[in-house]
Design a protein that fits this description.
Blueprint (H helix, E strand, L loop, with lengths): L4 E6 L6 H10 L4 E5 L1 H7 L10 E4 L2 E4 L1 H12 L6 H25 L4
Parallel strand pairs: 1-2
Antiparallel strand pairs: 1-3, 3-4
Helix pairs in contact: 1-3, 3-4
Length: 111
């Protein structure tokens, strides 16, 4: 039986987005839980490191967006079959990790 995936993050395209895209590209079904700001304080103490995103795989909770994306890529067969192909896949995940804070700065910049 295929694993059950439950991805939890805020309703924004940020640290969980690479994993959402990986699952979509691979055609993998997953539960996409979008946390409202008002619900965050109740959820926070239930997370492994007090933050999201989190990915639950058959009830086991993983955290850290980049680690989750790498895991999802490996699980779905998108991580690459050789070490070189895996490094190329990691390259894209790492670039997204560096790009997100810059995008957030643009989003929250004042006029």
């Amino acid at each position: 039986m295929a694993p059950k995936y439950k991805l939890t993050y805020f309703n924004v395209r940020a640290r969980a987005e690479p994993t959402r895209l990986i699952f979509a590209a691979a055609g993998v079904e997953f539960e996409d839980v979008r946390v409202a700001g008002a619900d965050w304080q109740a959820l926070k103490p239930k997370t492994p490191m007090g933050q999201v995103p989190i990915l639950e795989v058959d009830g086991v909770m993983l955290c850290q967006g980049v680690s989750i994306a790498r895991f999802a890529a490996k699980e779905t067969g998108l991580a690459g079959k050789t070490n070189l192909k895996q490094a190329q896949a990691d390259m894209f995940v790492d670039e997204i990790s560096e790009l997100l804070p810059k995008l957030a700065g643009v989003h929250f910049a004042s006029d």
